[in-house]
From TrEMBL:
The keyword Flavoprotein does not apply. Keywords: Cell membrane, Membrane, Transmembrane, Transmembrane helix, Transport. The chain crosses the membrane at residues 6-24, 36-54, 66-87, 94-114, 120-143, 280-305. It is found in: Cell membrane. It is a multi-pass membrane protein. This is Transporter.
Length: 306
């Protein structure tokens, strides 16, 4: 299992590097990348979230226990990040990148490779619990610390009209009501959603600017500590209280320890955050995760066994 995780992250690293190469070789016009980011945020990512949540098979799984574990651990770490903001020495837009890097996970359903068909269902529960929670939290943080400072009415409007939030709750509604996506439409939505992952990672790579890498050190360190240390520990502590164990606990731990998603960069670009820093955090965490996730899984599972 510990070797499967790094192998699943290798394609992520390759796509980020390819995006960096394409941008700096001027293979495509610079205008392409901004349009690709917009397409991903408003069309492709919403399709990914909606399809994954609407079509998941959740029979005979500990849905509520897993969801509560993920939501409460995410809220705990989010509160910790906000509390430590004064110590980070970063401005508002940069803090939004640190925050996203602390609570978001990359959209790679590694659980399917670890636990088969049951893993896909467990992964769906993880998405159903984390995606709406994280997107609402991030919109609130952008409203408070981003380059724009809207009123409370504006904040509520941002949440209500955010395409990722709408898609998440739309998928959950389909799931709860037992509705099926029409046969002719489902393959189209699935294909659009799947294409969001490689395009988003290419955009992350294209946004990398290593001339500013020296400014990444502190934000990368803060966000990576939260992602690879605080988040797994919080997840295990909540799981112990709730009674989550076995493959379900491993799946929860795995998802919470995944590096931040390419959607974080796209959201930073669209909502006034520090997008170049977000790209740096995404890339750095992806590389760090190759070693960090196996270490986290081995260390915490050993601790639980003791």
């Amino acid at each position: 299992m510990t070797t499967a995780v790094p192998l699943a992250l290798v394609p992520v690293v390759i796509l980020i590097l390819l995006g960096f190469y394409l941008r700096h070789r001027r293979f495509l016009d610079d205008a392409f990348w901004a349009q690709a980011e917009r397409l991903g945020y408003y069309v492709l990512l919403p399709c990914l979230f909606f399809h994954g949540l609407a079509t998941a098979r959740l029979d005979s799984l500990p849905v509520s226990d897993l969801a509560f574990t993920l939501i409460f651990s995410t809220l705990a770490v989010a509160a910790l990040v906000i509390a430590l903001h004064p110590l980070m020495g970063v401005d508002g837009p940069a803090f939004t990148s640190v925050f996203q890097g602390s609570v978001r996970f990359v959209g790679v359903t590694l659980a399917s490779g670890l636990f088969g068909a049951k893993g896909i269902a467990l992964a769906a529960i993880c998405n159903a619990a984390i995606v709406p929670t994280v997107n609402i939290l991030c919109v609130l943080v952008f409203a408070r610390h981003g380059s724009a400072t809207p009123s409370w009415r504006g904040i509520l409007k941002q949440i209500a009209t955010n395409p990722l939030v709408i898609a998440s709750f739309g998928g959950i509604t389909f799931q709860m009501l037992g509705l099926a996506v029409p046969p002719g439409i489902e393959p189209a939505i699935r294909t659009l959603g799947t294409s969001s992952l490689p395009l988003g990672l290419l955009c992350v790579g294209a946004a990398l600017d290593f001339s500013t890498a020296r400014h990444w050190i502190s934000p990368v360190a803060w966000s990576s500590f939260m992602k690879f240390a605080a988040m797994p520990i919080a997840t295990v502590l909540v799981a112990v209280v709730i009674g989550l164990e076995g493959p379900t606990l491993t799946t929860a731990l795995l998802f919470q320890a995944l590096p931040t998603a390419s959607s974080a960069y796209i959201m930073a670009r669209q909502l006034g955050g520090d997008a170049p820093l977000m790209a740096g955090i995404t890339a750095a965490q992806t590389v760090l995760a190759l070693a960090a996730i196996p270490f986290v899984l081995i260390g915490i599972t050993t601790w639980i066994a003791i």
